[in-house]
Specification:
By secondary structure, this protein is mainly beta. Helix content is 3%, strand content 45%.
Length: 601
């Protein structure tokens, strides 16, 4: 029996209806060109144009060093930022002299300079040399504090008394009651010290130790920061103000009133704006050029203690009361993430690897945070009551080429609970090793809760479902060359249509036409948003319905193999019904089967 002409039109409409659900497809992301590999987080890796792909950079390695001052211990701790190992502890001043280190900065050669406030005495700037310059104490032996037993911790027997360490000496005496509070190097390479006791900043001659320039300030400086344009920015906690000092004109060029605040730390973002962390829980933004000031009130009623900015321009602030380090958007000050670090987190700074470090004097620790993974990746023991009014990280250039490196990139599928299929890559190991790992979650904040799993090229991923996939590629150098990854392709996994909610529906808009009822299958969804079609494969009638049929009725079923089934009306009258088997096929080839019941009229 042929379809009546009007039935053909309805069948076409039904096919179009199911095909127009969505235009989704399996997610695919490729990395092949130089710009593709510039995204994400690099640790000693990058796109090498000579090798034509991602490789360990052929440069001198830059090792991050942390200098952690402790006024309580009258000492400064030197830490390896990559391993968390203690490298040395330096005494600052004679026993009982209370030379309290409160800030540290370093030069490009790895030498550190420490501001020491000395109550009732002359302030000091103490220099810690990267390597001993000779027998400075006259005992005919060149000695310095170091981890002699190589256990990663500095014991009491490895700390030398004042005057015994050939790396430590007094660079400058700043004068009585000057109370040095902070240090920084300006854009010309000159060392400046903030003198809280006399409300001034001064330039320190690195050869003679003489203060060659003293610039008086309207208030008492508590922290300083140098920009690239020849200015020093001075934060005054006591006077609620921010000053711009011209190092070339040697004048106070601008004064910014911070109002009713208690500013404790500052940093510069990628747009050149100055962000100030307030003890009362407010973030203050100052535009250097026109002096405009904005306040972002937060619910951090316990206030902030430290602030820093990452390479993406996000603002990080520590909240001692809550035990958190929080990420804020530089666009509107909105909270982007919170990372529990415990204790009472204080000052923050980034090292040359991009790790965010936080001092925690209460726990006697210093912790490193991977801002990409949003988690604490390293915690090292520190000194009691560690604190610093200036960034406490530096970089030491080590001769030689790095032996390893990593590249981590976050891939957004754009839909929640996305399924991930495979990662395929082309690489040349060159005697080294390429290791690929991945993990997935619905939000970046959830990723650190998931462990990385090892990935084999082209094999099915076992990371579970999630909108975001974190891909980490680790490279280990061979005897001569770095491995090179030339191409990476990440593919989602197609999920077939979900038929769990399927139902059989009678199109009541055309009842009784030529004695047939049009039946369609509804309630099917595709989890990936793919378009799909439905194919009815068979029909089984209940026994009571079969009794209503007459010989030849089964042959009158129309539409088997299509989305619409046409059933003679008399077969569904009375007590009977039927079971309809079908397939749902999405645009990517995914197939699901199902069975629905159609009750009698």
């Amino acid at each position: 029996m042929r379809f009546p002409r009007k039935f053909v039109g309805f069948l076409v409409l039904t096919l179009v209806m199911f095909a127009a659900n969505s235009a989704g497809a399996v997610y695919v992301k490729e990395f092949a060109a130089k710009n593709d590999f510039t995204v994400g987080s690099h640790e000693r890796t990058g796109f090498d144009e000579r090798l034509g792909g991602l490789a360990i950079l052929d440069t001198i390695d830059c090792v991050p060093i942390l200098w952690v001052p402790s006024p309580t211990a009258n000492a400064v701790l030197k830490l390896d930022g990559r391993t968390g190992r203690q490298l040395a502890v330096y005494r600052l001043g004679p026993r009982g002299a209370e030379w309290r280190p409160c800030a540290v900065t370093s030069d490009p050669f790895g030498n550190a300079y420490v501001a020491c406030a000395c109550p009732g005495r002359s302030g000091k700037v103490v220099r810690i040399r990267a390597v001993p310059s000779g027998d400075t104490n006259g005992d005919s032996i060149v000695t310095t504090s170091s981890d002699r037993d190589q256990n990663g911790l500095i014991g009491l027997n490895e700390v030398l008394d004042w005057g015994q360490d050939d790396c430590v000496d007094v660079l400058a005496d700043t004068g009585p009651e000057t109370q040095p509070s902070a240090l920084t190097f300006d854009s010309d390479g000159a060392l400046w010290v903030a003198l809280e006791g006399t409300s001034a900043v001064a330039r320190v001659d690195l050869v003679s130790g003489v203060l060659t320039a003293v610039i008086e300030l309207p208030g008492k400086p508590s922290s300083i920061w140098a920009d690239a344009g020849g200015s020093i920015w001075v934060l005054s906690r006591r006077d609620h103000a921010l000053y711009r000092v011209s190092t070339r004109d040697r004048t106070v060029a601008a004064v910014h009133d911070l109002g009713d605040s208690s500013p404790v730390a500052m940093c510069f973002d990628t747009y050149g704006r100055i962000w100030v962390a307030d003890e009362y829980g407010t973030l203050i933004v100052v535009h250097p050029e026109h002096g405009m000031l904005f306040r972002y009130a937060t619910d951090y009623c316990g206030g902030f203690a430290g602030i820093a900015v990452d390479d993406d321009g996000n603002i990080w602030a520590s909240c001692p009361v809550k035990g958190l380090v929080t990420c804020f958007s530089a666009v509107d000050g909105a909270v982007m993430d919170e990372i529990p670090v415990g204790g009472s987190p204080q000052q923050l700074c980034f090292d040359s690897d991009g790790t965010l470090w936080v001092l925690n004097g209460e726990n006697k620790t210093v912790s490193g945070i991977d801002v990409g993974d949003r988690r604490v990746v390293r915690t090292a023991p520190s000194l009691p009551a560690s604190c610093s009014s200036t960034p406490f990280s530096s970089a030491v250039y080590v001769r030689g080429i790095p032996s390893n490196g990593t590249w981590t990139v976050l891939i957004d599928a754009g839909t929640p609970d996305a399924a991930w299929g495979t990662v395929v890559w082309k690489a040349e190991e060159n005697g080294g090793q390429v290791q690929v790992e991945a993990r997935a979650a619905n939000t970046p904040a959830e990723l650190p809760l998931c462990a990385y799993v090892s990935v084999r090229s082209g094999e099915a991923l076992s990371v579970g479902e999630g909108r975001y996939l974190a891909l980490r590629i680790s490279l280990t150098r061979g005897p001569k060359w770095s491995p090179v990854v030339r191409w990476v392709r990440v593919e989602g996994k197609n999920r077939p249509p979900d038929t769990s909610g399927a139902v059989a529906l009678i199109d009541t808009s055309k009842p009784g036409t030529a004695g047939y009822l049009p039946i369609i299958i509804g309630g099917i969804v595709d989890p990936d948003g793919d378009s799909f079609t439905v194919r009815i494969t068979s029909v089984t009638f209940d026994e009571s319905a079969s009794h209503c049929a007459t010989p030849g009725d089964d042959a009158q079923l129309l539409g088997i193999g299509s989305p619409t089934l046409w059933i003679p009306d008399k077969l569904l009258k009375g007590q009977g019904g039927c079971s309809i088997s079908f397939q749902a096929i999405d645009s990517e080839g995914g197939v699901s089967e199902g069975v629905v019941q159609l009750a009698p009229k």
